[in-house]
Amino acid sequence: MRYLLSILLAIFASSCFGQLITEELEREINRRIELEINPSFSIGILYPDGTAEYYGYGQPNTYSKQPDSLTLYEIGSITKTFTSTLATFYLKDSLNAPLSHFFPEITHPKLAQISPYQLQHHIAGIPRLSEQLKDYKNARIAYETALSLNLKNELLKTKIERCKSLEAK
């Protein structure tokens, strides 16, 4: 996560000083794609005059082309940053209080003692991924399979509803 934030900071800094995508940043993006750390990157820069530039690297999934200004991404990782910031802002002195202070229904003794501070700093001892998703390739395959199954389920649901409406007539 720190590394991704460093990349975003480099993007912001380079855009402020006139050089958009540095060679160093582009090399790092391509390295991360080649090593399958990240499947793709999309960078959008909005200028004060309202014009924008977009840069796309890699391939978001096996069904897509190179990313562009319309490519959709999940924002799960950035959501953690927003949540952490809001927790710091609203909880202030309570960041070190155990979760059971906020959620009395937590009965597991280990979970009850974890604090928001520990969750923010990833020191609570909770694994990042479940055992079946230990490496990125498996997580990506699982995600794409879930998307595919969801699409198939939606299509099936639509067909069933269409058949029911025909039967009702």
List its traits.
169 residues, mainly alpha, 3 domains, two-stranded antiparallel sheet, 2 strands, extended, signal, Beta-lactam-related, Beta-lactam/transpept-like, Beta-lactamase class C
Summarize the model shown.
By secondary structure, the protein is mainly alpha-helical. The protein contains seven helices and two strands. It has helices at residues 2-16, 23-34, 76-91, 99-102, 109-113, 116-120, 136-168, and strands at residues 40-46, 52-58.
Number of extended strands: 2
Helix content: 40-55%
* Uncertain ranges: 13-17
Radius of gyration: 22 Å
Number of helices: 7
Sheet with the most strands, sense and barrel status: 2 strands, antiparallel
Cα end-to-end separation: 56 Å
Portion in strands? 5-15%
- What is the SS-derived class? mainly alpha
Give the averaged pLDDT, no decimals.
75
Shape: extended
Q: Strand sequence of the main sheet, in spatial order? A: 1-2
Order of helices and strands: HHEEHHHHH
- Count of separate structural domains: 3
Structural notes for this entry:
This protein is mostly helical. It has three domains: 2-58, no CATH class; 76-120, no CATH class; 131-168. The chain is 53% helix and 8% strand. The chain contains seven helices and two strands. The protein has a two-stranded antiparallel ribbon with strand order 1-2. A hairpin with a 5-residue loop joins strand 1 and strand 2 (52-58). The longest helix has 33 residues, at 136-168. The radius of gyration is 22 Å and the shape is extended. Mean pLDDT is 75; it is low at 13-17. Residues 52-134 form the Beta-lactamase-related domain. Residues 1-18 form the signal peptide. InterPro entries: Beta-lactam-related, Beta-lactam/transpept-like. Keywords: Signal. It holds the Pfam family Beta-lactamase.
